[in-house]
Design brief:
The protein is α+β, with helices and mostly antiparallel strands and 231 residues long. It has two domains: 79 residues, no CATH class; 112 residues, no CATH class. 52% of the residues lie in helices and 10% in strands. The protein has seven helices and five strands. Strands 1, 2, 3, 4 and 5 form a five-stranded mixed sheet that branches. Helix 5 links the parallel strand 4 and strand 5. Helix 1 packs across helix 3 and helix 2 runs antiparallel to helix 3. The longest helix has 35 residues.
Length: 231
């Protein structure tokens, strides 16, 4: 009988992680390689031109070229991460529970939210999620406006009852023209102006969490397994 070493499995190294991200993204995005090559070549060519024009000594020429290579490699990785994030959001787009997955994986510091919706339509599985930050309370509706408006109105009333002076904003992720895409959630949250202090954010969040009634996660995206790639 083989003995168990008891050692935890080693996590993949940074290079292995980058290769995995590259392989997965290339399958979903056929233009990934050309964009990465372009991102690498532009800084490299700039480095070569500067080496010829102001390099002076051999050492100076070498340093400018090396700097161009490093900058090109960094630019290529940035492009890969951006397109990997876009591909991850594209895979989740339109799936029930996708907003919860985004909130769990990418919600910025200073915001308090959960992958569990605060309201769900049991028939259509449309849902409303909640995030609390310095701008106040933000309700994020997942589904068509016509089907989620009633859920949003009910949550507005709940917030007004518990925290009457706290601003309430609404974002919609769905098929409507005025809706936003999954990848725009954090950007839109960041544009909202701060109104509360950190202590007030914590107090409001705790009050609202006391209203939680164990709303089930919509079937679709599993927020514990789906994580959009961070930049």
């Amino acid at each position: 009988m083989a003995r168990s070493t008891g050692r935890p499995a080693r996590e993949p190294g940074r290079i292995k992680q980058l290769l995995d991200v590259f392989q997965m993204t290339r399958k979903a995005d056929s233009t990934l390689v050309p964009w990465m090559v372009l991102a690498f070549l532009v800084p490299l060519l700039i480095g070569i031109v500067l080496a010829v024009l102001i390099g002076g000594t051999v050492l100076g020429v070498v340093l400018w070229i090396v700097l161009g290579v490093v900058a090109g490699a960094l630019a290529a990785i940035i492009v890969m991460n951006q397109r990997a994030e876009r591909a991850a959001y594209a895979r989740m787009e339109g799936q029930q529970g996708a907003v919860g997955a985004v909130l769990r994986a990418t919600l910025r510091r200073g915001w308090r939210g959960s992958e569990i919706p605060v309201a769900v339509n049991p028939r259509t599985r449309d849902a409303v999620y909640r995030a609390v930050g310095r701008p106040g309370v933000v309700l994020i509706a997942e589904g068509p406006k016509g089907r989620t408006q009633r859920l949003v109105d009910e949550e507005r009333r709940k917030v007004a009852r518990v925290a009457p002076n706290v601003p309430v904003s609404v974002l919609r992720v769905g098929p409507d023209e005025d809706s936003i895409r999954l990848g725009q959630i954090n950007r839109r949250l960041g544009r909202l102006k701060g109104k509360l202090t950190r202590a007030e954010v914590l107090a409001v969040s705790n009050r609202l969490e006391s209203l939680a009634g164990g709303v089930p996660v919509p079937k679709g995206v599993d927020p514990t397994r789906t994580r959009p790639v961070r930049r």
